[in-house]
Amino acid sequence: MKKPPLKKFYDLIWFVLLTTFVLYISMLLLNYYKPLSNYRISFLFLNNHTQVQKPSKFSINSSEIINYTSIVNAENITPPPPLIRENITEVVITKPSTENLDPCSGKYIYAYDLPSIFNEDLVKGCKSLNKWFDMCPYLSNLGLGKRVIEKTKRKVLLKNSWYVTNQFSLEVIFHQIMKDYKCLTNDSSIASAIYVPYYAGLDVGQYLWEYNVTMRDSTPKKLANWLGEQVEWKKMLGKDHFMVGGRIGFDFRRRTENSSDWGTKLMFLAETSNMSFLPLETSTYENDFPIPYPTYFHPSKDKEIHHWQERMRRMKRTNLFSFAGAPRPNSTYSIRSVLIQHCQSYNKSCKLLNCYVNNQNKCDDPVHVMKVFQSSVFCLQPPGDSYTRRSTFDSILGGCIPVFFNQNSAYKQYLWHLPKNGSTYSVFISEEDVKRNRTIIHDTLSSFSKKQVLAMREEVIRIIPRISYRKPGSRLEIIEDAFDVAVKSVLERIEGIRRKEFL
């Protein structure tokens, strides 16, 4: 028996409605089902026929009318304005960029596994590294030296963050921290920078006196030959490499072959001359980027830094200024003797810590040094054997405002770590003015108002984390220390070179 025509008509309507409903639900599920957000899908509606196909590019003639396109992204990314091309609608689900998902994108560092003669063997032979004293105690505890244990009742330091750290231990400390760098990779092909863990300062330190240039240049030349054979070096001829030097840059840039000349020619070798070099002090070369001397403070947690900063803010400072150091009687250009005499003349306002008394170096004792700096408003920082000195960073650590007498002591050195405007955290007095008695240091420092002093001290305390190297094996959660600032800056420099020359 045949169905009535009206019955056929109703059946057709229900079929169309049911099909439309199923199609609508399917599209709704595809749009909101999260696992599918990692794929790009296109739905094309053309002449009442539906098909799913791979997205394809199509040209749009200027005479065609564009009204609507819907962009759907399951990751809640704000869609661009909708477009339509006649009766064709494209719905797109896009895969998020992998760069946005990888927190180490652009930060990966590959560290060479150098032969042990370039680092580990130097530490093992620590007794011969310095002509004047034994470096072995200073290289213990991953380069930090012995932990400080205070015997005084009135504690000057925090309990667990202080070590007897030598200023020439930077290469070891930096290398040990790098081993726990969160974006260290074993795949050099994805690395943004290549780290060369050569202990150049420890190496040259043992040959600076009474050795000819052949001996001084022996290990640097071996390193250069080794680097030249590496695939990583050939990629950019060393321009994506960086190395830390635990001495001033002058020690690594000997121009002649005369044994009477100072240092090695490490940074003049072809395989190393393109590297970013991070010494303690620059020799005004465009690839030298000085980083802070290591201090005695090596925190392992953010709260230790915060605690120390707050302590420096509350400290009662009874001395207007102080000087910690030793005279340079054989130096015609040094103003240290003048500063010592001036400090002694104003002994009610100035605290003098003479480093060498009874053949003991009191400036090698963190408790003595920090006690002086914590009690002083200003700390005199004249040049030493070179323009810079480790005491600058010790004084900052003590919340003491540094007073410089040469522009090269800080302002032209630590551009990554210290504020660009030196007057925000320090005072400058010309060496010539001191030598010619045109300036009385006491009067100059007394002329600053209480408001100016507080502002400078707050800036000094603010930069304490940026000049401190954390304890190797630890990671700070929010704060950036001297290591973090150096790595971040060298990555930015290398990326700039890559964009300029290799893209």
Automatic annotation (TrEMBL):
Protein name per the record: Exostosin GT47 domain-containing protein
Subcellular location: Golgi apparatus membrane
PANTHER family in the cross-refs: EXOSTOSIN HEPARAN SULFATE GLYCOSYLTRANSFERASE -RELATED, XYLOGLUCAN GALACTOSYLTRANSFERASE GT11-RELATED
Family membership noted in the UniProt record: Belongs to the glycosyltransferase 47 family.
One family name in Pfam for this protein: Exostosin_GT47
Record keywords: Glycosyltransferase, Golgi apparatus, Membrane, Signal-anchor, Transferase, Transmembrane, Transmembrane helix
Organism of provenance: Lupinus angustifolius (Narrow-leaved blue lupine)
Main location: Golgi
GO molecular function, one term: glycosyltransferase activity
Top-level taxonomy: Eukaryota, Viridiplantae, Streptophyta, Embryophyta, Tracheophyta
Keyword 4Fe-4S: no
Stretches that traverse the bilayer: 12-33
Membrane protein topology class: Single-pass type II membrane protein
Start and end residues of each Exostosin GT47 domain: 104-441
Gene Ontology, cellular component aspect: Golgi membrane
